[in-house]
Amino acid sequence: MNMDFKRKLPTPKEIKEMYPISEEIADVKKANDKEIQDVFTGKSDKFILVIGPCSADREDAVLDYISRLRNVQEKVKDKIVIIPRIYTNKPRTTGDGYKGMLHQPNPNEKPDMLKGLIAIRKLHMKAIEETGFSCADEMLYPENHRYLSDLLSYVAIGARSVENQQHRLTASGLDIPVGMKNPTSGDISVMMNSITAAQHPHTFIYRGWEVESKGNPMAHAILRGYVNKHGQSQPNYHYEDLMFLADTYAKTSLENPAVIVDANHANSGKKWEQQVRISKEILESTRYSKDVYKLVKGLMIESYIEDGCQKAEEGVYGKSITDPCLGWEKTERLILDIADMR
Known about the structure:
TIM Barrel, single chain, 8-stranded parallel sheet, 12 strands, alpha/beta, globular
């Protein structure tokens, strides 16, 4: 094989023993999970916001950002459930570039996966300890989920991973909501097949074990736009798209029909400032159809302290080093506006 085996990494169990959570923190996550699950099952009419940086690049700025979210959450808690994005591994279209804190705890240093595993666990732990938020992360590597399984309240499976068997089967064994994005081609049937697979029980190999999953009734859709054959971004957040998805769900026997709409990525053409307009249009769409209102459980928004993005070496505090994000002032205003529209 044309690779070097550098060292054997600790197992999830070993990392959890090195950095354990308290019973009190476990209870906080349990309460958060219940509140979020009630939205997906329809017991709660609250609106979910999965919101935060495109990638979690540095602990201090991410925790600063999340503490700001906590202050806003208290103002809108009757209508909105905030799930902060702490995305610690970053998919890359070509495979090149910064792959997230898991790979590089310091974006300007060489990859170190052991330091990365410890850094991402510490970051998620500090988030819940300091703010009471149990957060969202992307399942880029299904075998790594257990390093954070006692800390996460939401998992997203990306557009490039949603057709992968191991992602689907691992999602079927989780007990928290898992959002399946439509693929970059925009083929809704691929996303629906992924949700079906995740909601069903399976027997498969996971981390060297033969495991049996029970199926995850919280698996659901994420619409993120797509790219056409000419490489141009195309949106799928409009009223007609939401109605089509509602009709598609109605033809299935899937549990808890739901969609989280991603306001960035191909839906905005990565024009981060458009997330404000797009979010409000989606809220307006829910007013015209009971089916759309029931289906749309929330939004996914890329937001950080500073507007836009930068190169890692520029070092501006709280500014994305991957996709451009909505800055804090605009974010706070948007959250309050969404609460008013609900």
